[in-house]
User: Fold these one by one.
Assistant:
Number 1:
Amino acid sequence: MTIPGVQALAGPDQVLLLLAALVGVVLLMSLGFAAFTLVIHLVNDARVKRWRQMESEWEKPLLEVIDGDAPASSIHALISPRNARFFVGFVLQFDRVLGAEEHQILRDLARPYLPTLLPDVRRGSPERRARAVQTLARFGLPEYSGTVVQALNDPSIFVAMIAARGLFKREYPEHFAAVLSRLDRFSTWSRGYLVRMLAAGGGPAVPLLRDLMTDGDREPGLRAAAVDALREMNDLQAVERAADVLDGGLHPELAIACLRLLGHAGHGGHATLVRRYAEAHEPTVRAAALAALGTVGNDTDAALLREHVDDTSPWVALAATRALFSLAGPPGLVGLSGAGSRARTLAEQVLAEASWA
Amino acid sequence: MIHQLLLRVLVGYNVVVITYFVALNSVYLLTAILAFRALRRHARRLKSVEVEHMMGGVGGLPVTVLAPAYNEEATCVESTRSLLSLRHPSYEIIVVNDGSTDGTLARLSSEFELEAAPRAPMADIPTSQVRDVFRSRRHPNLWVVDKANGGKADALNAGLNYCVTPLFCAVDADSLLEPDALTKISRPFLEDEATAAVGGVIRIVNGCKVDAGRVTRVGLPRSSLARFQVLEYLRAFLWGRMGWDALGATLIVSGAFGMFRRSVVVEVGGYATDTVGEDMELVVRLHRRLRETGRRYRVVLVPDSVAWTECPESLRGLGGQRDRWQRGLVESLVRHRRMLFNPRYGRIGMLVYPYFFLLEMCGPLIEGVGYLTFTTWLLLGAASIPFVVAFLAVSFAFGIALSIATVGLEEMVFPRYPRLRDLLILFWLAVAENIGYRQIITYWRVRGMVSKLRGVTGWGVMERRGFDVPNG
């Protein structure tokens, strides 16, 4: 085998030499990779052993402190400054599985070591910053609230979200405004996640969320998240404001959220407004409107709902069937058993769902 | 005269082989560097904030797991148990019995106390006839759709029609998901609503100890053929796919474990039923449609969400699998050839598609013919034997370096093999696979292309030993 182009530049011996050198280099690299892998394996092993050893040393005293059988100082005596971060991580693990009562104890245990995390909030990878922010938010509020609030402006949206989640808790209403003012940063995040985060604010967050819902200058998606959070918090007073918002004609996402809220806590007075959306172009809006009619509608809506059982969208058809059941119970579905196969299946499904519930 | 002509052809082909070799290894080097950086970043992220904690009570996304099953009597109960034991805040399982002729449905029915339950489809992707829908009395989130046989894609489409959650996760019936796999794989959907699809990592379960649907001890298989595949899978997922993912150019989401946004997949018409590479075809089609409509979207890989799957341990089984994979690759790439070097499709069209088209699809042919021409060249006495040996040595050395580096990467970011002995075996395999295994895989891939040209369709024989295999 020869390579004319290569050999024009160098003689066969030089080419061979070059290839042999290349093989040598690559094989040496392989040996290097293998040695590196073995070293990593040993280091990983040693780290796991060290971690397990520390865990076994700490676990019993920690459980004694949690049970109230020993003072916090008994475990603090075991923690060397070198292992302070590990200890905070260890306590955090327990905090994830234990309840609110134990949280206070764990918080007190971790608190003396929190200053070791402060440098991490400002330097290193976003992941490291996020970890530090999460731990401070969990164990260090309100003392470290300034640091956590600052993290809302972190260049990494991930870090900012971790900070927002840590701050948006019913115990810290003083930080709600700071989080809500930066909510636009999280507009790409899952709506469900935002909704649950906002709902975690509880009662103290309600007035601010109502304002967000009606603020026409904010993104419709975020306003919709506020509406959904208010629904999760069962905020009855938000219903009238949602009806006003809905009356203005709006973005489908926001309309759906408002319709869901009306469906959850609305009354007969909202039926006319809801009916307007029952013929919306977007199937998702139609489905939300028909579902809401199941709560706010009356007997006169049965015909409209029956019509939509044959809607081109199966989601709309299902919503209509469920609404018929909500309005009139099993008798509301009677006529459907003789209808097309989809309508029949839907009716049977809704009846079965009721029996499973 | 003929001799001279033949020599010229061979010289010309040598240039093609060497160009292919250089191009392939350059791409490998590039993806290796990118994968290394991406995996380090991901590992740091894992150490920082656990996704389960991030989600815990704060909006875990509802998911439907779709598990098509065709004659999976041996594994269906264990896999379904494994699916039922996943740690995820809200999920439903739909097992689709695709007209099995064995006792799959009966085993599922007796084990999980299935009862017929009315349920209307929420999409109308055409499928073979659905006979019945069942719900488990013991596990209210477990459903079984019984339908006439139509193939894996058809079964997935049937499941998709009954899916009511925003996300669905497609798994093979013989896949075992790690308990937190669903939560981990859904993280990109949590962080970005534009996420359309996410791939997980597949690892080989042969040789591992499995208890109650969970892998409790990781080990290497006994069979050499399966061991080679362990290394191959590590290389494919941690190196190749992760490298492309770092470039934002993920083109494959494995059919054994991938999560998708339901609405987007329904919008593009579900899985294609006329290809054996329905998983790749779907992702390519998603890229194509979403780029054509100018929508922002993401298709990514999550390297720490793991599904364990059985690999074939016989030459026949492995040959059939690789033949099928190559046919699937050819079908997907030829069908969407419009994307090739088309700037409209961004880095997909200009970077990853050409790589798959020229190097992955045509590569086995180039390599296979290369072995033949080298042999002819030697037989004609025109070759410099030291040169041939040196070239092959370079080729093998690169292969060895890449495989060993993959083992290193695995150990660095997601160490699963606890025993030093396993690592040493993997190093040995990195050397040994270059002699025999690599060539036979090339042969099967070439055979796959020939099968495609001959119009062969279907999946062929699938091996299923069940999970109660002796431990290695």
Note: Residues 84-151 of chain A form one domain.
Number 2:
Amino acid sequence: MPQMFDRWPHRAPRPGEAMAHVRAVESGKGLGTLWRIFRLTLRHPVMAGITIVATIIASGLQLAVPRLLGEAVDQAEGVLAGGTGASAALWQTALVLLGVSVARGLFTMLHNYFGEATGHHTAYELRLAVYEKIQRLSFGYHDKVHTGDLITVGMLDLDGVRMFFATGILRVVLLGILLGAGSVMLLTTDPLLGLLALSFAPFVAWRSATSQLELRSTWLTLQDMLQNLSRVMEENLGGIRVVRAFAGEAHELDKFDTVSDKALALAHTRVDLRVNSTAAMNLSFLISMGLVLAFGGEKVLSGTMSVGTLTSFLTFMTILQMPVRQLGLMVNSFARASTCGDRLFDFLDLDLDIADRPDAKPLVITDGTLTFEAVQFAYPSAPERAVLTGISFTARRGETVGIVGPPGSGKSSIAHLIPRFYDVTGGRVLIDGQDVRTLTLDTLRQAVAVVQQDSFLFTTNIENNIAYGDPWAKEQQIARSAEFAQLHNYVMGLPTGYQTIVGERGVSLSGGQRQRLNIARALMLDPAVMVFDDSTAAVDAGTEQRIRQSMKQFAANRVTLIISHRLSSLMHANRILFVEGGAIAEEGTHAQLLALGGRYRALYDLQSRASEDQSEAAE
Amino acid sequence: MTDSALEDIDTEEKARRPPKAVVGSSLDREEEVFGKAYDPRVVRRIWAFVGPYRKNLLVSVAAVIIFTLTQLAIPLVIRHAIDHGMVPGGGSASATARTTLYWVIVGYGLIIGVNFAASYVQELVVGKAAENVLFDMRRAMFARLQQVSLSFMDKTEVGRLMSRLMGDVNAMQEFLETSVLSVGDLILLFGIIGVLLWLDPLLGLITMATMPVLFIVRLFWLPPAKKSFMDAHHANSANNGALAEGINGVRTVQSLDRQRVNFDLYEEKSRTNLLAHLRAAKFAQVMVPIVDSLTGMSMATVVVVGGQMVLHRQLDVGIMVAFLFYIQRFFDPIRSLTMQYSVFQRAMSSGTRIIEVLDVPLAITDKPGAVALGADMDGSVEFDHVSFGYRKDIPVLKNVSFRVNPGETVAVVGPTGSGKSSCMALVHRFYDVTEGAVRVGGHDVRDVTGNSLGTSIAMVLQEPFLFTGTVFENIRYAKADATREAVIAAAKAVGAHEFIVTLADGYDTRIEQRGGNLSLGQRQLISFARALVADAKILVLDEATANIDSYTEMLIQKALKRLLEGRTGLVIAHRLATIRGADRIIVLQNGEIIENGNHTELMAQGGLYAKLYTMNYSSFDDLPTGIGTNPGADVGKAT
């Protein structure tokens, strides 16, 4: 096999290219989608070309075999020449037959290999495009879309598109040549026998196609049912303590049986469907063969046909049988490619609602001032529900601003708007006078770090997790960040220290430890704006106190926002904003707000011990 | 689109591979059970599932034999037709031949009729029986898991069990469906050999000379080919794993601006995947020309040798034709039998994993003559010198004794790993004590029925676990016959009614994704309502550690109060408010009770409780190192 194809591509594509490769050229569903998949295939013209040529040659050679066998039989019977001439002819036929077989094998190999390889290359490109798209789509998109749906697009739909060339297009070529050229050969040799030999084809083709389509639709339903079954079991196992605590085992088995029995019934229906069609296809083929044998035999008897010709008719039928029966798979491939392709291309063609503008500039930090200017906001998933109705404030370098408020007051949304996780619906967010929407996302997000309450832990070692935003970081930097986040001692207590693998299936970290890791992650970026979004909620008070201490040095060089519902986390801030109903209700230092005696004061009382005792006594 | 901006990225930086970056899991995949091709124990156990369908199996084996025999017969029929039914040239010979031809055609018709019936019966019976066996197996596993010990469930990830319940069971399907077919393949293989030797021993031998060649080639080909197929499979899982990670972690990726680096790493993974698949495709396809060449060789042999023999009237031409037909099918059984071997190996490893699940030891079962706790049970809970450990060498509780009187609320506090959760599990007899006794209502829990224990004790877990279904169904989970009024009353009592009625469909709102559409506080309140509906004498509650905002907290404290009214309460407490509300506080450390008394008494004692209380720690779990706890208690929690 030529090695050059292994090394392709010589250069890894850039993310932009990955998306450009598959950009919409054609639109429209159904045929438009299939055409688009075909065009993606044509991006590998050499491979696709070799495949198609090999397919044509291989099927041509395939057709030669029955004819050669027929000739050999005739030669053996001495129909064409007698004595030594016949023997020489047999040798010649045998050698040609051997040659044709070897060549057919080689070209079939090329056809199969390059057919698959073309698909894999296309899949490789699509994979990159899908991944890049996922990485670039906004939070707003990811809020709406279920992760399972994206996985379906990236795995199953991609496979459906990948297989289209080999199982769809190539099969059309193969079947077309075999049936087309084959029919011409047979019909010109003997019209009646030719018709009989081909008589099974329309029935089998139709049966195969319809049953495959039916099987496909029942398969999809069965998958849904198994998905349900899977969900029932997964919930049961995940919630096994609840099940046991309430003695719910019998109830759970009932639930299982209901779903399982339905799935089993459908599985049986599918067996019926499959068997009905395969048995019928077999029978119709064998009937055709019997007809050829009967009428052909009659012709041989009457001397109008040689045994060799009859043999070539019969062997031709055996060769044609497989591809005709596989017509159903071809139809299935078309159906699958068209639905999978629709979904895949719909996804790839999505507009990025948060992306660099064409004239986007890099962020330039001068004073390090963050300004909210009459900011209004609603989540894209619920545009009619205003979350922020007009927030204005300014925070200068070195300042720490606390943001507090009841749940749903919009305090977290403030954090999301700074690095453009979402875009404002009114007003502006400015960093040193530059509207964040006019900046390149890269420079903006490197300058703004938001530590969220629960951020994702990657299944790799602690070091890589901390250095996630700066994978070029040195060990000392990583350890220093961890020290500041009060995580270092814990990590050093682990047998493998920073090399310990965490995340799914790794060592599990407690909520507090995860949050400290998040903080360490953010510190690595040395951001101009640092936002703690309820990021110490699971950290105990003592450790939080120490984190606060170490953050003091950090805070000097940047704007720090602390969003929390725990007043102890933010009462030391230079300024505190009490947010309610999407607007700033109270603003001032801890002392000022206490003195004000408003909502902040009420919350303070609620959280302080004295009032709890009171409220308990009052009840 | 962001293309233009992306082009500007510093190329030098791009060229350097970041040393501290990976995409996808850094852990190796679960070890595959490999090697053993045939394990009689596994086969025996799987056979037990086939047992109920033994009759179907017999029928289908008989059918497949008949089917294969008819397949074998067809070329012979053609041979007969040619040699005896087609004698051209007119005359009486032709006339008898014509009669023969008619009879042969009639015979052929009968054979294909039988062929049709046999193939129909065989596929139908095997297909359905295989599905039945699969579903039976899955049910047996699931039912087993309902009864296995909780310590097994704690140790085992749900994902792994699921892969056995779905993946491994499905892997058996291929095996079950094709194993009967391989009987047919064997018969076909030996049938062809036999028929060829019978038709003409010499020509048969020469023609089949290629068969051992194929065997030997396949023998050398199989191990590296299989490895390449496995590699491709694993590269694909790794690739997909990285994609799933990219989807799940997308918010973190974006906020830390890692898209660029991730793209390059993902590209590497995708390319590895691509190359592995190309390699596997090469291995798969390289057999094609070999098989075709060998087939060609055999056909050429028949043409030359058989042709000469026909020429010299040593062989009927029909036999030559029959040979040509058999050769076309010659290699099919060899190919599918070697395939079947791989399927068998896969099924063996899946079977081993399935049996592991079926063999998980059962949890505690009722002892004979166990009594049911009645409604007159007083609701007391007593630990009498209880020692307990999940493993014999590591005791979790050491000689713990305390009593909770009817109607009393006791808060159990202590650092992580102190044994609080074990106490709670023992009350419900999730495990058995190693020494001493746990008594509920004066009865040793080992002497009462599990069911009555379940109805006497309501549990609220730390993580409020909700099932897919409506809010209503979730609240009455513990009591399937609870009326709507009772459910609403319970929800009102715990303060959940207010938010439930604001949901889209009120009590009939469907809970998706384990309650992902509700806040943690709301889920907590629903789980309180669920416990209230259960209306048990004893309430065991593991308080949520997650930080909840002060407003929700207030609601929960109120609900908790309502829930504990008139009940015996054993609460693993994390919040000072709960602890202060308790009648008594038990402080556990390293499996021993170190303090026991009410708030005032413990404060006066000046022990661990007083120390933590004065330091104003909101939780007793995430203690800083050094304060009376073993550092890194959660280190060994790797699963």
Note: Chain A has three domains: 14-190+329-352, 191-304, 370-618.
